[in-house]
């Protein structure tokens, strides 16, 4: 998700615009090539919808991160490179999903605006198990959809189940506000969905 400032109103948070098949255990050869490109350091190439091949990849459902993958050197490399990419000062975001850097695995990085210091954290195999009926509407952008913003209605509160990005421990927590919006946006990426799919049409 693209980094854009936001304001809070009574109804909720309003943001304002500013792989190949392999065995079920490890990364595929194509995934390894993507992870280790450019010397396995630094910012990764972003997949964007204006590239036909990238667009097809972004519409593909991602596969789980296995325990074998989690304990591999490449997992750590991918996590660090995803963080470098989303924090790129020339194109900052508040969240990123592995498919956005060409790796179809269920792994995301999210900036936790609801925690002290607003840290970025890695989440493995995240699943939203509950969406609140209360909604919040805001303007979203996306690193993979350059220069396009639109109004989106999201759940105000969610329940998230995931594997900790540092320990692989299974966890569950309640998340609300702007941070909940980011999680919904990034988990959508893992299912091949984009915010433009649910964008509210502009009033005529």
Structural features, described:
Helix content is 23%, strand content 30%. The chain is globular and about 50 Å long. It is of the alpha+beta class. Strand 8 (157-164) and strand 9 form a beta hairpin. The strands form 3 sheets. Strands 3-4-5-8-9 form a 5-stranded antiparallel sheet. A two-stranded antiparallel ribbon has the order 1-2. Strands 6-7 form a two-stranded antiparallel sheet. It has one domain: Peptide deformylase (Peptide Deformylase, Alpha-Beta Complex). It has helices spanning 29-35, 52-58, 67-70, 73-86, 177-190, and strands spanning 6-9, 12-15, 95-97, 107-111, 120-131, 135-142, 145-155, 157-164, 170-176. Mean pLDDT is 90; it is low at 5-23. It contains 5 helices and 9 strands; from the N terminus they run ββααααβββββββα. The two termini are 27 Å apart. The longest helix is centred in the middle third of the chain and has 14 residues, at 73-86.
Listing every helix as H and every strand as E from the N terminus to the C terminus, the arrangement reads EEHHHHEEEEEEEH
Quaternary state reads single chain
By DSSP, the count of extended strands is: 9
Strand-residue proportion: 25-35%
CATH architecture: Alpha-Beta Complex
Look at the structure and name the CATH superfamily. Answer: Peptide deformylase
Radius of gyration: 16 Å
Total helical segments: 5
- Based on secondary structure, the structural category is alpha+beta
Give the integer mean of the pLDDT values.
90
What is the approximate shape?
A: globular
In the sheet with the most strands, the strands line up as: 3-4-5-8-9
Number of domains as seen in the coordinates: 1
CATH top level label: Alpha Beta
Q: In which range does the helix fraction lie?
A: 10-25%
């Amino acid at each position: 998700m693209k980094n854009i400032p936001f304001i809070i109103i009574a109804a909720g948070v309003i943001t304002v615009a500013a792989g190949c098949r392999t065995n079920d255990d490890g990364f595929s050869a194509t995934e390894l090539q993507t992870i280790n490109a450019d010397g396995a350091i630094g910012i990764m190439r972003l997949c964007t919808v204006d590239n036909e091949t990238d667009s097809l990849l972004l519409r593909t459902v991602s596969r789980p991160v296995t325990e074998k993958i989690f304990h591999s050197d490449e997992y750590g490399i991918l996590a660090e490179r995803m963080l470098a990419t989303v924090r790129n000062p020339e194109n900052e975001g508040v969240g990123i999903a592995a498919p956005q850097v060409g790796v179809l695995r269920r792994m995301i990085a999210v900036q936790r605006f609801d925690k002290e210091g607003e840290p970025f954290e890695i989440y493995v195999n995240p699943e939203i198990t509950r969406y609140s009926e209360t909604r919040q509407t805001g303007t979203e952008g996306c690193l993979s959809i350059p220069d396009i913003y639109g109004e989106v209605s999201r759940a105000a509160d969610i329940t998230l189940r995931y594997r900790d990005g540092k320990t692989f421990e299974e966890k569950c927590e309640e998340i609300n506000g702007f941070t909940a919006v980011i999680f919904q946006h990034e988990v959508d990426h893992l299912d091949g969905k984009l915010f433009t799919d649910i964008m509210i049409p502009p009033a005529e």
